[in-house]
Design a protein that fits this description.
The complex is a heterodimer of chains A (274) and B (292).
Chain A: H1 5-33, H2 37-40, H3 54-61, H4 65-96, H5 102-112, H6 117-130, H7 137-162, H8 165-173, H9 178-189, H10 191-207, H11 210-215, H12 223-228, H13 238-258, H14 260-268
Helix pairs in contact in A: 1-13, 3-13, 4-7, 4-10, 5-7, 7-10, 8-9, 10-14
Chain B: H1 6-33, E1 36-37, E2 48-49, H2 53-59, H3 62-92, H4 100-112, H5 115-125, H6 132-139, H7 151-179, H8 183-191, H9 196-207, H10 209-223, H11 228-233, H12 245-254, H13 259-283
Antiparallel strand pairs in B: 1-2
Classes of the chains: A mainly alpha (274), B mainly alpha (292).
């Protein structure tokens, strides 16, 4: 069916309008980070200003910036790797094996996905204190792996189900052991699911700051916690906090542009099949 | 195929141990903690058993009730606006066009970016003196508002920020769902003389009702998890006008240092969310209808 040209034009106009709405606040973060202090408090519709890297220099010169960056990278990457490894195994077990307690494990996992992080804050603070995990990066990693596993298992479970069992059986008959069946047959077919799961896990571990604020000190702080400290009772140090916000936003932005399709697969998993 | 019982343990064991230790066990110990009077910075051994006192003091605290009200209103407003907007936009823009992949990429950006950055961006936009929102209002000939200093407007601000962040989620899911509707059914309706409205209301929407229900539940559950954006945007203020339960818990525990009372409120929030999740599981069970 051919659509009249004006309809197509209206369609694109609307898409562009929505795209502008979605990206404007993000552009504001980057634009403000490039403004000088005087420009930040000037008329907001004044879009022409001399960009400066002063705010970035100030943030990077901060005593512990490199330490916070390393902390954030460590927590983000290690949490993602562990979540993927454990999540893959669990999803495979749930999808392929029949055993007692399977349904209760599956249901509990789904319920844990819904627990608000605020509910975890108080008990985790107590338990981590007892276990000597407060102010330790491993304490954060353990927490992020645990809160990301339910979603990861749920997502990967769907991907394992889509792989025909016959494929695995054929590989087994051809002499592959269980480990090789898993790594050579299953993992490549689950690649889009793995990509989505790793982006979502990294996003949480990299962006989260309330639990990190509670569980870290000035040695183990992550970048979002450091950024939140620019917001004080007296006011907000806009230039620096926006520079910090921009730096934090860069990895998720890169992932989004590189792997938008996988992210959408992950977003729609559970609601729309296929 | 019969599997020896150590095989499932091998596959599931590690994940189950981590989830139990760092998620299930903390959630359950919130119930136990709620029975103790425990102040921050003191060793756990000095905590005093007070039974139901924390629940009594939480439930007789008008701030907890107003916070529960704020949470429910926030969730109801955000989720209904996001659903209506997302579905309407998806219906208007469902026709596949060139370059949609690029637009979709832009639409998921609000969900991918750190909540702390989202909160900051909106706090800056809503600023009374140098915010873009007020500047645009003035261009339109309307008077500027002190957005984050007025209880009602501050509440509107957190709702707007959430709608901005999550409407694309509904939109993207609905586009995918509508693309899956069998075109011949729509053709049949058109041949039978159904106008556009009838096609939408009587054919398309009923066919994707299942997806709408699941999306609604996902949004509702996540609306109760919102915390960080509001922490940055208003920190619950002015007064307690934007203090949702999650933020109330944080403040009670780590500003007011009453960990026992905070645990009692945590249990309250958990009950609300678990009730919702139970409903969600009944609607969308990924393990439904498969052989045991």
């Amino acid at each position: 069916m051919n659509r009249p040209a004006w309809l197509a034009a209206a369609h694109y106009a609307m898409l562009c309008g929505l795209a502008l709405l979605c990206t404007a606040p993000i552009v504001v973060i980057f634009a403000t980070s490039l403004r000088q202090q005087v420009d930040i408090f000037a008329a907001p519709l004044n879009f022409i200003f001399t960009p400066t890297l002063e705010n970035y220099r100030a943030v990077l010169d901060e005593d512990n910036f490199d330490r916070y960056l390393v902390n954030s990278l460590f927590v983000g990457l290690v949490s993602t790797l562990l979540t993927l490894a454990l999540g893959c195994m669990a999803a495979y077990g749930l999808a392929r094996l029949r055993f007692k307690g399977r349904t209760s494990i599956a249901y509990t996992t789904l319920l844990l996905r819904t627990v608000p992080l605020a509910v975890l804050a108080v008990p985790v603070f107590l338990i981590w204190t007892e276990w000597k995990l407060v102010n330790s990066l491993w304490g954060l990693v353990l927490l992020y792996v645990a809160v990301n596993l339910p979603f990861t298992i749920w997502l990967l479970y769907g991907f394992v189900l889509q792989v025909p069992v016959e494929l695995e059986e054929a590989a087994a008959i051809d002499g592959c052991g269980p480990v090789r069946v898993f790594t050579k047959v299953l993992l490549p077919l689950m690649a889009p699911g793995l990509a989505a799961a790793s982006i979502f896990t990294f996003r949480i571990a990299w962006n989260e700051f309330i639990l990190a604020l509670v569980l870290t000190d000035r040695h183990t702080r992550t970048l979002p916690v450091a950024a939140s400290l620019f917001i004080t009772d007296i006011g907000v140090d806009w230039g620096r906090v926006m520079a910090m916000g921009s730096l934090i936003a860069i990895p998720p932005l890169i992932f989004t542009f590189v792997a938008a399709r996988q992210i959408i697969t992950g977003l729609t998993a559970g609601a729309v099949k296929g | 195929m019969r599997t020896p019982c150590w095989v499932p343990a091998l596959y599931l064991g590690p994940a189950v141990i981590v989830m139990v230790a760092a998620c299930l066990y903390p959630v359950l110990s919130a119930f136990q903690l709620a029975g103790y009077d425990w102040a921050m910075g003191t060793p756990w051994s000095t905590a005093r058993w007070v039974g139901w006192d924390n629940f009594v003091s939480a439930l007789s605290n008008s701030r907890v009730w107003s916070s529960l009200g704020t949470t429910l209103l926030f969730a109801a407003l955000c989720v209904s606006a996001e659903m209506v907007l997302g579905i309407a936009l998806a219906l208007a823009l469902e026709h596949p066009v060139r370059g949609m992949a690029f637009f979709r990429t832009l639409f998921i950006l609000p969900m991918m970016i750190a909540p702390i950055a989202v909160g900051l961006a909106w706090r800056y936009l809503f600023d009374a003196q140098f915010g873009l929102v007020n500047a645009l209002l003035e261009v339109a000939g309307l008077s500027a508002q002190t957005w984050l200093a007025d209880p009602t407007l501050a509440f509107a601000a957190i709702v707007v920020a959430d709608i901005w962040q999550w409407t694309p989620f509904v939109f993207i899911i609905m586009i995918a769902a509508l693309a899956g509707v069998d075109g011949s059914v729509i053709d049949a309706a058109r041949i039978d003389g159904a106008c556009w409205w009838q096609q939408v209301l009587l054919v398309k929407l009923p066919m994707v009702m299942h997806v709408i229900a699941i999306t609604l539940m996902m949004r509702l559950i996540d609306a109760f998890r919102v915390l960080e954006v509001i922490y940055v945007l208003t920190f619950g203020g002015p007064g307690d006008s934007t203090e949702i339960l999650a933020l109330h818990i944080y403040k009670t525990a780590f500003v007011g240092q009453q960990l026992g009372v905070a645990a009692a409120v945590s249990v309250l929030l958990l009950v609300v969310v678990v009730l919702l999740s139970w409903g969600a599981l009944r609607l969308s069970n990924p393990m439904k209808g498969e052989p045991r």
